[in-house]
Amino acid sequence: MSLSRRQVLVFFGATAGTVALGSLPGQSGSPLGLDAASAATSPQLAFNPVKLPMPLSSAGIGLDRQAAEYATFKLVDDLVLPQGYTYNVIAAWGDPVGDSRFGYNNDYLSYVETAPGQGYLGVNFEYVSASTWMATYSEVLGKTLPFDAVKAAVKAAGDDGIDVYSLPNGDPLKGQIQAIAEEALVDMGIGVISVRKTANGSWERIQGRTDRRITGISGLKDGRYLKSTGPATAVFRKTSGAGYTDKLGDRIIGTFSNCSGGTTPWGTMLSAEENYQSFVPEGVHSDGTSLSPTKKPFKLEPDDTAGLGSALGLAGNKYGWVVEVDPANLKDYGTKHTWLGRFRHEAVAIRAVANQKLAMYSGCDRRGGHLYKFVSTATVKNPKDKANSRLLEDGMLYAAKFNPDGTGRWIPLKADTPVNPDLPSQVVGGMVTLPKRPDGGVLKIDSDEKIAAFKAQFKTLGDLYTGNAMEQQGAILIDAHFAANAAGATHTARPEDTDIAADGTLFITFTSGSSSSSDGGPNKAVFKGPRGETAYEYGWIVKLMEDGKNAGAMSFRWDVLHAGGEPAEGGLGFANPDNLEVDASGNLWMVNDMSSDKLNKAIPSRVDKEGKPVSQSNLRGLFGNNAIWYMPLRGRHAGKTFAFGYGPMEAEMTGPFMTQDMETLFISAQHPGEVNGVRKNMATETRTFAMKTTDGAQFIQERQVPVGSNWPAKTANAAPRPAVVAIRRLDGKPLA
């Protein structure tokens, strides 16, 4: 993935100061139409970048001054923006929405305009940050839950947790746990609110007729079930099978783990269910039915909640999908389109071109996860026609095969597709997961010889899944990640967001190239750092172009656009890229997602106590808070990254959505104070960091770090609350 300087300049048509990656190996010219003329005539950057703790090449501070300029740094517990920019809070956790409330850890935002400066704002709510959520629940919501009693019971149960599903009805502990599970799941899901722009340019909520919540328990007690389409419904309708069924047929209780998503040209929101495996069993049997809820016990730990869905008897195979919601329809509580596959969805990029097949792209955000594409059977006539939702009911799901030479192809996930997995020796971590047969669940394979034996036993995907033709296809889609593993899709580096430009270029964030013992890791021949490193933690932004620019193409070209990491090591100064937004001018905006426990973690030395280099994962403390980045793709600044802002303490900025006039950026601030909770009495610590200048000279930085958060109230001892904000320029002009 590392490229020559000549290739970089050819791709961007940029000046000698460009420091990004680009250009397919051996390609001449630029697929994005970047040229020297546009570089020479491009206007200056519209804003002065925000200063971050790490020296950046784009910051304009000379090498001779960087060590002195960055010797001290003071972080602020706020959303920090360039001079001349401001934000206002639109909604925060606990605010009323319909007959419910604004949820926790708001993520993807979908703005659908209904009139100039007015529209629907769809909001995802991903999960609850257990420790901070419990500590502030009573203050924010004005009611209590039996946290202390349940925490004591969980502690007594030990590492195995509590099998709530098997407890008898009427058991007091079961009732207490279910009460907590229901409230936590209410704080997940989707919200629809109505917003408008005021005379001074700020944004406010208005009471909309269609304002509503779709929660993790919609349908459990209120009859507001979600619907489903596609082959997996044949499995859902089973009243018996190899595993667990909930007897609800194709009706579904709730949606949770709603991370990123997409907005269709016809005005609906697509919400992606991501880390559902925390709440229900992920594994399934060969017929697509779920493992028993007993396989996912309840846990309530400071940094995690587990088994919330199993505590309520939810069927695991009904979560991990893409949910479509029409914000204009009050009675629409969501439809899960199963042709889009069940995996840890992070986002959905939509390609709807008249007279072409509809295509939707989504990544599975796990180590070793895949990039997927759904292609409709029928063609798009009018991209803005709401009847296009019907196109999601019939088609095919494909998984990507990336070749190291910058080419690739799409593998169909269907019964006659050959079994041909990547080898453990080819992936970081040396382990591949495959469907476990004859038992349900997952098999971990750590040798190439075991892969050969698996291929000898199972020739096609149809040998791994059972049922009639529709049920078998449904089972494959339900088990999409492991089916894709079996089919030989490329293990990638946690594909998070996908977004698409007007010319059809797909942008993908691969957030981390490390491995895990449970999921494996990325392909070593494909995912390399700027200097050829494998197990590269800091991530990449990749662009993918379908052959012939046809959404239905079965082959593509791909290339690295930007690599994360320290500038001195060939990176562009960010770590773990996450959500993307392509603005109306065709430029990229990105927010990154470093783990909360790594943010501003002191690094007094780059050598640990045992004399070994500090790992890339632990070096992430150098980068400061999670931030907002502007990445021009044309003109004199092409190939550079600029810090547009950074978020509150221990928070992640998520779900950016730019209005078409580029005057407003809606964005979510997720989990402020996730690690240390409420900032007590404006507490601040001074921490030491072994930094590097952009050319690699080491120096020591003393950094003042607020401990915990009081955002968005920003008053002493106030509870931190996830919230959605609108960012704008004070002079009313476009943001960039």
Description of the structure:
This protein is an alpha+beta fold and 736 residues long. Among the domains are: 42-105 and 583-736, no CATH class; 117-340, no CATH class. It has eleven helices and 36 strands. A hairpin with a 5-residue loop joins β28 (577-582) and β29. It is globular. Mean pLDDT is 93; it is low at 1-42.
- For the secondary structure, the number of strands is 36
What are the low-pLDDT stretches, counting only 5+ consecutive residues below 50? 1-42
Total count of helical runs of at least 4 residues: 11
| Share of helix, binned | 10-25%
Give the CA-CA distance, first to last residue.
30 Å
Going by helix content, strand content and strand pairing, the class is alpha+beta
Overall radius of gyration: 24 Å
**In percent, how much strand structure appears in the residues?**
25-35%
Main pleated sheet: 9 strands, antiparallel
Walk across the major sheet and give the strand order: 17-18-19-20-21-27-26-25-24
- The average pLDDT score comes to 93
Overall shape = globular
Give me some keywords for this one:
single chain, globular, nine-stranded antiparallel sheet, five-stranded antiparallel sheet, alpha+beta, 736 residues
What secondary-structure arrangement, pairings included, does this model have?
Blueprint: H1 5-12, H2 36-41, H3 63-69, E1 72-74, E2 85-92, E3 96-97, E4 100-101, E5 106-115, E6 118-125, H4 130-141, H5 147-157, H6 172-186, E7 189-197, E8 203-206, E9 212-215, E10 227-229, H7 232-236, E11 258-263, E12 269-273, E13 299-301, E14 304-306, E15 322-325, E16 335-337, E17 349-351, E18 357-363, E19 371-379, E20 395-402, E21 407-412, E22 432-435, E23 442-445, H8 448-457, H9 469-478, H10 480-487, E24 495-500, E25 506-510, E26 540-546, E27 555-563, E28 577-582, E29 588-592, H11 616-619, E30 627-631, E31 642-646, E32 652-658, E33 665-670, E34 684-692, E35 698-706, E36 723-729
Parallel strand pairs: 1-35, 10-16
Antiparallel strand pairs: 2-36, 3-4, 5-6, 6-7, 7-8, 7-9, 11-12, 12-15, 13-14, 15-16, 17-18, 18-19, 19-20, 20-21, 21-27, 22-23, 24-25, 25-26, 26-27, 28-29, 29-30, 30-31, 32-33, 33-36, 34-35
Helix pairs in contact: 5-6
